[in-house]
């Protein structure tokens, strides 16, 4: 929500780890490969290592045992596009333009009709790495805009297999086109068609396996060529409509969502084994996380945020705190846990040490809530999970996340603990507000003419469609 703001913690961590490592190495030593595994809508509570009772993530649990677990890791934003834009730019969505000014504190992203996308003025991680000689590949969902200038190969990546938008559908290709799948700079098909089918009834799809094979082929090719690589592995099977391949369907205790988690866990295991088999594990930094918390409103198609309040689309812990594991044999000590205090500040909420202050609260509107959309099912907390945007800026709600990770018991305003916490947090908020230079908002305008009617390469496979005339309007973001 303040989806206009957030922390660049994710990228700051990667950058500090990687830059330190680069600085420590002599010029003769090869540069470390980098793999960021970004899950879609997977929650903190979906991993066995964080207590998921079904214990269906043995590979991620082993990865944590061999590496470093981050129980306090935050995304930049509780929604796909702004979170991913922040990850790749290292800048808050309000700075990199992934927000809207059409209404106050709304969640905005890049559906097919969005006109904007990642600004040409932003510097993305693969662009920085290219200067060091890296080859970069995206496997999976992009979500930083789907018009040609916004696509991955025009923003620092060398290769891509995946889609520019969420795999919503199927559509009829008349009022709305099915989302294309790209191979590098040209489309090779559309979701729900040919080999990219997702069976709406069973949830069966081979796409996660396709992404795994593509990732392994890329790693092998770079390894053989002795070229440093950056693999941004961003499969989207845990985003509704969730899907899994036949081998995994029905195997979990948690329905198709759990099957998708099992398949992704399997894929992570295969990739880590592949690195070992190729003898490059000691020279590859792997970081696993998710773009936002589990979508509780998706009911059985959504995951778990463990003990945390609410989920995707909210700035409560369930929306912002993500599962995270760093793995780099020989560099990161086995079985370590990082609980270092960190700072995350934005207009809606700020965390400092164990204290979190909410300056605004909102789950979703009464209108939406009454129509059955609930971002906090079973977790209504009076004056906290509010259904109107409630302004607490004069007297923020403060929680102690150590004693109260579920954000259910605000600290009494008249207590010395409250006064002390606020005294520490206020200067940080002031500093943030004083230094904030908002980017031009990219998520304000929509237009049906910009949808994926005729992406590059459509003529070669007979998949070009005819769209309507341009008729832009101000996008509406309901929550
Ligand atoms: Ca997401």
Automatic annotation (TrEMBL):
InterPro entries: Alkaline_phosphatase_core_sf, Sulfatase, Sulfatase_CS, Sulfatase_N. Residues 32-334 form the Sulfatase N-terminal domain. GO terms for cellular component: lysosome. Its cofactor is Ca(2+). It comes from the Eukaryota. Pfam families: Sulfatase (PF00884), Sulfatase_C (PF14707). Keywords: Calcium, Hydrolase, Metal-binding, Signal. Residues 1-23 form the signal peptide. GO terms for molecular function: arylsulfatase activity; metal ion binding; N-acetylgalactosamine-6-sulfatase activity. The keyword Calcium applies. Belongs to the sulfatase family. This is Galactosamine (N-acetyl)-6-sulfatase. It comes from Cynoglossus semilaevis.
